[in-house]
Amino acid sequence: MPDTFAELGLSEPILKAISDLGYEAPTPIQAQTIGLLMQGGDVIGQAQTGTGKTAAFALPMLERVDPALRQVQAIVLAPTRELAVQVAEACHKYGRYRGISVLPVYGGQPIDRQLRGLRQGAQVVIGTPGRVMDHIRRGSLDLSHVCYVVLDEADEMLDMGFIEDIEWILQHVPADRQTALFSATMPQPIRALAQKYMRDPVTVSIEREQLTVPTTEQTYYDVAPSAKLNAVSAILDHEMPGAAIIFTRTKLAASELTESLSGRGYSVDALHGDLSQAARDSVMRRFRDGQLEILVATDVAARGLDIENVSHVINYDIPNDPEAYVHRIGRTGRAGRTGAAITLVTPRERRLLKDIERMSGARIRPMKLPTRADVAARRVEALKTSIRDRVQQGDLEPYLVLVQGLGEELDLAEVAAAALSLAATADRRGPLVMVEPEEETPAETPKSVNGMVRLFIDAGRKDGVRPADIVGAIANEASIPGRAIGAIDIYDRFSFVEIPERYVDDVLAAMSRTTLKGHDVTFKVAIPRESQAPREDLPRRRPPRDSGAPSRPARRPMRPTHRPPGRPGRG
């Protein structure tokens, strides 16, 4: 595999341009595809965002373009406006010493500007399928000299419904063109497209182990769906990110989360498909300039974003596709920097988390949500660090004069404390307050007997609750095996169920928004007998099941098996 760009057969003007950009050695996808494309063959590249695929197809493309011919010779199709602009900017930089004219075309931009660029002799057109089709139909885009076509992020264009548009465009470009297709995944429709419109393509695939960024620390938090907003607020306050992208699955969720975080005082804005191009550009400009600390985005809207100073990526909604997770966390840990990828996982989404770990080969560490005490302690440490850094910077003479003057009438320690108080009061999170760690109450501390914890449910026989209802609710909502559920005791107004200790947090989180037989119910850890006053209506706790003590014959089965696990048992 070539170790330098010079070994790939690139010309001096191209080598000079990439040297100016600080490129030292080709990435794996570049090393394996540039040579093939330079030879004129069709290539399929399977690679993730952040692996250098833009240069992989752009450098050979720019070598093939004739600078003296003021006609469109290459077309790159991209799924979003943002990606089209990003690729166009990269191609302009790569081709600067060859004098190549690059033009991005996409919806939301005045078409007059694009028409003018085409009339003036653009040689490389990079655009979204819809706008490229529009120019072809208008006759403003002459395809007769096109010799190079690139389909970038082909799977995303498939997901966005562009497959028919792509086919229409490919049918109108010259048949003797060279075609390059790049995609993170290769679903069947993309394979069929390649088979139909490409000529004996060579497939290059980057191993999955190379897809994740080793400088990105990956963690997750178990949360209930209703607790997500509070959880992400606590994480933001504790992590204090310099710039963070929070991903949601839908445009509606992005808008709602943005509004909620904004109401809590965060500097935040949304990026999703319903925004006009002018609004998107404004949001991105503010985020890049540091005027926004948080960007809430959907996967499609964030596709192709390349912002080097993103310190944190937070998956507010875990993606359904493990490949999308790799795309998301690729937004941080760039250019050799360290980054943090944090995922909120609800009980029903544990399977998705396991799929992601299996696919990426990375271990995603579980974390406990920071408490008020943790956040307060972190703020104190951050303040101490900033003070030390400021002292080391120097240039404090005007302030020292002021402090010395106040020191003649006040205690210097109190002067410093007052200054810190004024600075902290202006903080969005309010004055700096030390919070002592909270002690857990007996009811919050699961008492394990042979690995099982007894939960109390405030619904019973008179509410129509049956053992199957409890098993079905827990198995479905908390996504744990029904066979793992232990003894169930049902009384007139309440019930008890034994759960393996390792599932307690999942069950409590999942059952916080569940009904049984149409009734809102509360699940909580049963208070041990010794910590509560005697009550006549409470049953005596049965001995551990493996103690050899006989069980009562009239009791319902300890492990109900009359309904298969996973099937709802609720009314």
| Radius of gyration over C-alpha positions, nearest whole angstrom | 30 Å
Task: Report the portion of residues in β strands.
Answer: 15-25%
Q: Assign the CATH architecture of the largest domain.
A: 3-Layer(aba) Sandwich
Separation, N- and C-terminal Cα atoms: 63 Å
Question: How many helices?
Answer: 20
What profile does the largest beta sheet have? 7 strands, parallel
Global outline: globular
Enumerate the strands of the largest sheet in spatial order, edge to edge or round the barrel.
3-4-2-5-6-1-7
Q: What are the segments in which pLDDT stays under 50 over at least 5 consecutive residues?
A: 208-213, 436-446, 529-571
Mean pLDDT: 80
Please give the domain count. 4
Oligomer: single chain
> In CATH, what is the class of the largest domain?
Alpha Beta
Any idea of the CATH topology of the largest domain?
Rossmann fold
Fraction of helical residues:
25-40%
Structure summary, number of beta strands: 21
Q: Which homologous superfamily in CATH is the superfamily of the largest domain?
A: P-loop containing nucleotide triphosphate hydrolases
